[in-house]
Structure formats: structure tokens, C-alpha cells
Amino acid sequence: MQYHLAHPPNRTMQKLKGYWEDMCGLIIRPQRCDYDITNLGHQLFRIGVGIYERTDLTISNPRGMSLQCSHFEPTQAQRPSAKMPCVVYLHGNCGSRQDATECVTVLLPHGVTLFTFDFSGSGLSDGEYVSLGYFEKQDLVSVIDYLNEKGNVSRIGLWGRSMGAVTSIMYSSKDHSISSIVCDSPFASLQDLMQDLVVSYKPWIPRWMLKIAINTMRASITKKAHFDINDLDTTKYAAQCPVPMLLGHAKDDQLVPISHAKVISERYQGECSLMEFDGGHNSDRPEVFLSTVATFFTHHLINKPAPTRRESVSASPSRSEAPVNGTPVHADPSAGLENHQDPELLEEPTPVSDTHQYTKADRQQSQSDVPNPEDTKLDDEVIAQEERLAAEAAQQAEKERLEAQKAEEERIAAEQKAEEERLAAQKAEEERIAAEKKAEEERLAAQKAEEERIAAEKKAEEERLAAEKAEEERIAAEKKAEEERLAAEAAQKAEEERLAAEKKS
């Protein structure tokens, strides 16, 4: 018996190799989000009665790549305290920091600042490839170190989506100072996700070839992006992570099925709440989920006691950190953390001298130390003057601060009013153009109706004239017929008279 292949073996393998390369590109080099910085909105803005600002900055990751970042927080005049809790938003593999703009209204009104950035290989940051959490975890190390060194952040939470969710679990399994994490649609393991992708996008590929396909893609990804997909097993990190987690996943997610979230939830070491909602992998999240996120972070970042323990963060589940460019990352487990001990507890107590007899010499010395009443009066006046000047200076400073705050609020209000007036003018102009367009359409319709009326009248007139002409022709024909009849009768009478005359003669 002979078997005939639909394609020669070499052509089939070349075709499959092309599919594997496309799949690798989908994983490590998806379409990059290219955006303009203006997409992040105004740098100074208002939410309700609160005034907030966005600070854009650049930090470097352990591999020397620049990460483009933004920090959304109240203005200095409106900060409720010097230190405020902060949530770091981590985007997906096709996203960027602009994905966090919907989180601004979720967190800022609750007294939580928002920090977001482009992972290396994403958005406007350096880097060619994404790694689905492997190197992104090191990017997050640099961000957390920056926030700790800044000195105005009290507690830190993480809010990740897809790749960012996986990064949150991986990082928090090693840094237990993170207060809480929100993970939206993470995958259980990259190898499982790749198998799902092959089955979903190329269902005709035989099952027995899946292992070959995964190994082929694994080798290609290792060669291009320098990480092993087998190291991205989220469930292993989940089993080591005690940080409270809110896990969200869309029921109709076709890219990362909800079964991934259920596996992570089952293996998670710490407190974990799984919330399912309608939608797909990239659909907008429902208000009920966003409200739950706000409540979750408010509880863990503001109301709950802060965690203190932190372990070193490595690039793999092992305890040791793989070196980057020959330099180990976070060799010191306490790197990037502040010492929050009270300075007064570090001071040595003042020694107390032994009790001694109060002698005459002591009494004489005491009497010699009594101040002159006049000198005391002058000192009191100087002190009072200094206190008055200090109070006036403080009052003036407060007045200037309030004036500056008022001026800032008036400027924002003026800008907002100007924007509203511009929008109103634009709306009025659009309404005017629409009215003119409608009037022109009505004029043309009236003109057309008038033309149709004139044409109808003309046609009616032509029909009337045609009927009148037909009537005249009928009358003329009847008249002619009558004349011919009369002529015939006259001729007949004349003939009869002629015959009578002939007969008579």
C-alpha cells in the first residue's frame, strides 16, 4: 500500500516552521503600543474637589534600559500626609502605561497614588522583546526601589493585567513587603498558554506534534529573547506568595481561558479571592470589578497594618538571583528598603549624676545666678518680639500658600472654564453648521417641491390645451360633417328638382 503526502516533507516542515516563528512573534514581539505622551492627559487635572498632577520620569532597570514612567498623585498642597500609599500598575504584553489612565479615577479619590510605566520592550521604553514576566520582574525591582528611595510612599500595592498580573505574583512571592496585589487574567504557565494558543489558532496541527512545536518555540525564544519559557510557571510562584490577592478573570477570555485563574487560585499560598465577570481578554472591565478593586486596596493599603518582611527577588523560582551583564541583582535582600526606626530610640539616655549635699557654696552660686529683673524684662520683650515676628512670618507664609493654592485653583478653574467655553463654542458651531445644513436641505427640498409643482402645473396646462385643441378639432370635424351633410342634402334636393323638371318637361 502506498501513501501520498499532500505536501512534500520539506515543504510541510517549512510551513510548520513558519507557523512556529509567527507564534513566537505573538509571544515575545506582539504589536508594540506606540503612543504620544499627550494620550496620558493633562499633567494637572481635577477629580471632584481634588487637584492632582502627573509627573513623568525615566528610571533604569538592572539591564541598563530606560523605563518611561508616570506618577499620578495629589498636588503638594492637597496631600493629606507626607507619605501616601501607592499602587503600581503593570500592563499586558501589548499594552503600555496609558492603559492605567482608567485606574486614575479608581484610586486617587480614595487617597491612593498611582505609579505606572512601560515595561522594557513595550511602549516608549527601551528593549526589543517582552518576556511575559521574566525580565519584567526586574523592571519592577527598579520601580519599587525608586518608590522606597523617594521617601513619600507608605505602602505599595500592585495591579497587573495579563503579563503584568503574572509579574505581580512572581515579584510578590519574593518581596512580602508588598501589601496586596490585584491580578487580572494571569496565565498559569507560559507553556500551557502556548499549547492553548497552538490549539486555538492552528487546530489542524496533530496533538502529537504539540510537544515538538513547544520545544521548537522554546529554543527560538531562548535564542532571541534570552529566557526559558519553562521558568514562567506562575503556579510555582503562587504557592510561595502570602500577599493578599484579588484575582479577576473574564468568563469569555479566549486568549487566556479562565481555567488558568482557577488553577492559580487553588495553588495560591495567601488569601485569594477569585472574581469572575463578563467580557473577553481585552474588553473593558465592569464597574463592579473596579469598585471591588478600590475597596480591596483601601482595606489593605490604608486600614490594615503594613507588612515589613522582604526577601530578595530573583529571575527564577530559586533563591539565588541570576546575574545581569555580570552583575547580580539585589544581592542584598534589604536593598531599596528604608529603616523606619524612630531616631529617638537610637539616642543614648542622658546620665543622671549622683545626689550630693546642697552646700553653702552651692547656695552662693545659686544666688549669683539669679538674673537682674531689668535684664529679665528686656529678655522677655526680645522673646515676645521674636515670637510675634515668627507668628507673622508663619501667617504670611500660610497666606502666601493659600493665595498660591487659590491662584492655582483659579487657574485650573479658568482652564476648565475656557475648555468648557471652547467645547460650548465648538458645539454651538457644530449646531450652527447643522442648522445651516438643515436649512439648506429644507430650501433645496422646498425648491424641488416648487419645481415639481411648476412642472405639474405646466403638465396640467399642456393637458388642458391638448384637451381644448382636441375639443376644437372635434367641433370643427362635427361642423365640417354638418356642412357636408347639408351640402349633400342640397345636392340631393337639386337633383330631385332637376329630375322633377325633366319629368315635367
Mind sketching the topology for me?
Layout: H1 9-28, E1 44-47, E2 50-60, E3 66-74, E4 84-90, H2 101-107, E5 113-117, H3 136-150, E6 153-161, H4 163-172, E7 180-184, H5 190-201, H6 210-225, H7 234-238, E8 245-250, H8 258-267, E9 272-277, H9 287-303, H10 360-368, H11 373-504
Parallel strand pairs: 4-5, 4-6, 6-7, 7-8, 8-9
Antiparallel strand pairs: 1-2, 2-3, 3-5
Helix pairs in contact: 1-6, 3-4
Query: What helical percentage do the residues reach?
Result: 40-55%
Q: What is the mean pLDDT?
A: 82
Q: What's the overall geometry?
A: elongated
C-alpha termini separation: 134 Å
Strand order of the largest sheet: 1-2-3-5-4-6-7-8-9
Rg result:
45 Å
Instruction: Tell me the structural class.
Output: alpha/beta
Q: Detail the poorly predicted runs.
A: 1-9, 309-379
Strand proportion, as a percent range, falls in 5-15%
Could you please describe the fold and organization of this structure?
With 505 residues, the protein is an alpha/beta fold. The protein is 50% helix and 12% strand. It contains 11 helices and 9 strands.
